[in-house]
Backbone:
């Protein structure tokens, strides 16, 4: 027999039905009834109080990216809701499943410019997979079930439920049924068998194939299948930024990261391959440079769950619409065992140049100043390459993506598509809640950390353990790098006068150290990793450090820069 | 590539906010919507949008995929004029006294196959359906009498194809639902 309950309680019960255990949120006027009810269910739902709503979305993203679960956010109407937009957009770009619940004024007052009213549906429609306004308590089970189904299925993404106050306090007859079907939405399409045969043939007939494995591998948990495919056909595997860690960094077929600051071998071979197999990636401009010329000489196979990605940026020879895991599974039996020794060996000359010209000078520098890559490399080694890398955006992000190594999948959490500065700290906090057993190393810059530094309060309140490494050059480093290379060294608005980060950390009860010389570095890293609880290292790195190699935006791989003065010329 | 006029048809669930979701896809690509018409389709609960815009084939392919990606959209298609039978309707409000002075009024109405919807002492309302060139042509002819109001509807269209993709789609989804729930 179904009893009558209030809408706010129906929402909480629906979240529990969907297996939610952790919520990131911030209360406010138009969502008080939900928080009132949350109090009664605090044994079942762990609500993490952030310090700014943007932090709640990034924390939910970090939580989702590491655990594979849907992240849940609750905030109030008006400014509470508008503060969420950056995180929602970020989740949309990086295919992260979120269910975001915003309070809304009572539906009778909608459109009257009431206190803390904002058009949340109108604002969020362009940056969500689905957004819906709940105006009646009776709608709640249907809307919540649909929200979780849409957010987590197919190509995942954020969903917004705008929850009018009258629906929160109104009564409804409780019953719940999960959603697994929407007439107008086919999240996992049936795989076209003819395409599988065609693609398998293309792979079997290729002599210089390469795989570009993206975030989709992680989202469909196709890591094992990817390896099987690559090993059977002896195909080199490269990663996009978000695809990092889908294949162990030390695997003999792993050839590095693609894109603007990726590895030379990975990038250069896109000019030499005869078959480019893109799986769960979307040919972002930071991967392709000039998309018109990208892999133009090769046949291109695109495997993706989102049909709208096919031929969007790069023309494909064949595409398979489907879940990466299912597609690769279907391909493997049709793939011939092959050996591409010569092709694989051809990466070596690129690797040698990169090691000599770029990697060694960055991780074993001869100069007195500490280099950013050096710090990343040391910390990755000290964790046995088993930690989770969370980054902010900019030089810290690119250098940690380049020099952090991975043994396990789902070990990188970074803002790829939107490139959100300030993403890192809340994402690292969320990641810790999603995988408490793992070591979280959060690399940031002196700029990025200050964008969401208030979230240190969450560490204080919940006593969680994350390792914070500030690569401090007193500059907005990536913009400064572009100014140095392309804007005549006019450092417009990039030098920063910074606060005492150690004192700030201490004020939040977090142990911290300033590191100013190489001699202090190893000891500081050891103390940080051995400490039970969060720890912050404020590391003074070379002021004008650069990220290389670099393919300038919009150019081709032929323009690959080894450093400020030298272009890469193939041996 | 030269832009030509494309007709996009979208079949969606009848849900609040869909027009916005569809129109922002055009906005993002800087496509100007030339005409738009939305109404319930022949299938209960399903709405049909007919949108025209000047563009090229490649852009249209991308736009249609983006539209279909919206959760509550069932299907979207794009056509050139040769693929469809299409029609618009136009209303013309003209001062009655001016019309009465015209000797060839009958000829004009006959030639354009126009209808008179209302006559008062002050004004007469004429109606004409057809392609834009046809409604335009009547407009040009009536101009001399001083048209006080003119309005033209968005295009409506049906395909010349014998395959009814939307009906087929709905059938397929029904069997998918049965499979899911069995």
Residues:
């Amino acid at each position: 027999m179904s009893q009558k309950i209030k809408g706010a309680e129906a929402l909480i019960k629906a979240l529990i039905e969907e297996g939610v255990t952790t919520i990131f949120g911030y209360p406010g006027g138009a969502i008080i009834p939900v928080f009132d009810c949350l109090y009664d269910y605090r044994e079942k739902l762990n609500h993490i109080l952030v310090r700014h709503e943007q932090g709640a979305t990034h924390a939910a993203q970090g939580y989702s990216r590491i655990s594979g679960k849907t992240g849940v956010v609750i905030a109030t109407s008006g400014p509470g809701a508008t503060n969420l937009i950056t995180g929602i957009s970020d989740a949309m770009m990086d295919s992260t499943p979120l269910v975001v619940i915003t309070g809304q004024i009572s539906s009778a007052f909608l459109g009257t410019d009431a206190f803390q009213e904002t058009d949340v549906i109108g604002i969020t429609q362009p940056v969500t997979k689905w957004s819906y306004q709940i105006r009646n308590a009776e709608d709640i089970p249907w809307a919540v079930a649909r929200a979780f189904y849409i957010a987590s299925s197919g190509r995942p993404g954020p969903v917004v439920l705008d929850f009018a106050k009258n629906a929160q306090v109104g009564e409804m007859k409780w019953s719940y049924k999960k959603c697994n079907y929407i007439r107008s939405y086919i999240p996992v399409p049936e795989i076209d068998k003819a395409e599988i045969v065609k693609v398998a043939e293309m792979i079997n007939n290729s002599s210089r194939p390469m795989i570009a494995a993206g975030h989709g591998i992680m989202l469909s948990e196709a890591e094992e299948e990817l390896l099987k495919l690559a090993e059977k056909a002896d195909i080199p595997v490269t990663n996009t930024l978000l695809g990092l860690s889908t294949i162990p960094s030390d695997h003999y077929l792993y050839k590095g990261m693609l894109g603007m600051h990726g590895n030379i071998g990975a990038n250069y071979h896109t000019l030499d391959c005869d078959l480019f197999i893109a799986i769960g990636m979307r040919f972002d401009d930071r991967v392709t440079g000039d998309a018109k010329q990208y892999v133009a000489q090769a046949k291109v196979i695109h495997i993706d769950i989102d049909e709208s990605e096919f031929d969007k940026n790069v023309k494909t020879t064949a595409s398979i619409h489907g879940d990466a895991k299912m597609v690769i599974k279907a391909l493997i039996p049709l793939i011939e065992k092959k050996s591409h020794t010569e092709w694989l060996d051809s990466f070596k000359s690129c690797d040698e140049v990169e090691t000599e010209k770029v990697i060694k000078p960055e991780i074993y520098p001869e100069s007195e100043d500490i280099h950013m890559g050096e710090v990343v490399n040391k910390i990755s080694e000290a964790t046995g390459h088993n930690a989770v890398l969370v980054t902010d955006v900019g030089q810290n992000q690119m250098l940690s993506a380049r020099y952090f190594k991975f043994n396990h999948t789902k070990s990188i959490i970074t803002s790829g598509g939107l490139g959100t500065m300030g993403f890192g700290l809340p994402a690292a906090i969320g990641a810790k809640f999603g995988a408490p057993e793992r070591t979280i190393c959060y690399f940031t810059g002196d700029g990025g950390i200050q964008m969401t530094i208030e979230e240190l309060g969450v560490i204080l309140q919940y006593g969680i353990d994350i390792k914070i490494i500030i690569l401090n050059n007193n500059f907005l480093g990536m913009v400064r790098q572009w100014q140095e290379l392309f804007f005549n060294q006019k450092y417009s608005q990039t030098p920063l006068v910074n606060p005492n980060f150690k004192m700030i950390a201490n004020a939040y009860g977090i142990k911290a150290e300033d590191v100013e010389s190489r001699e202090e570095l190893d000891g500081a890293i050891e103390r940080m990793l051995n400490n039970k609880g969060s720890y912050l290292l404020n590391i003074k790195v070379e002021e004008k450090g650069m990220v290389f190699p670099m393919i300038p935006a919009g150019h081709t791989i032929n323009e690959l820069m080894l450093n400020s003065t030298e272009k890469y010329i193939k041996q | 590539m030269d832009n030509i006029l494309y007709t996009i048809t979208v079949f969606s669930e009848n849900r609040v906010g869909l027009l916005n979701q569809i129109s922002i896809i055009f906005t993002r690509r800087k496509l100007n919507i030339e005409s738009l018409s939305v109404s319930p389709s022949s299938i209960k609960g399903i709405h049909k949008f007919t949108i025209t815009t000047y563009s090229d084939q490649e852009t249209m392919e991308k736009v249609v995929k983006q539209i279909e990606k919206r959760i509550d959209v069932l299907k979207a298609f794009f056509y050139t004029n040769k693929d469809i039978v299409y029609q618009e309707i136009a209303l013309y409000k003209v001062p009655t006294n001016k019309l009465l002075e015209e000797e060839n009024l009958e000829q004009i109405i006959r030639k354009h196959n126009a209808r008179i919807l209302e006559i008062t002492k002050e004004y007469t309302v004429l109606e004409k359906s057809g392609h834009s060139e046809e409604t335009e042509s009547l407009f040009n002819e009536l101009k001399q009498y001083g048209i006080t109001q003119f309005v033209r509807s968005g295009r409506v269209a049906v395909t010349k194809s014998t395959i009814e993709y939307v009906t087929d789609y709905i059938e397929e989804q029904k069997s998918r639902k049965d499979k899911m729930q069995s």
In short: Chain A touches chain B through 22 residues (CB under 8 Å). The two ends of chain A are 77 Å apart (CA to CA). Chain A has three domains: 4-173, 193-345, 368-541.
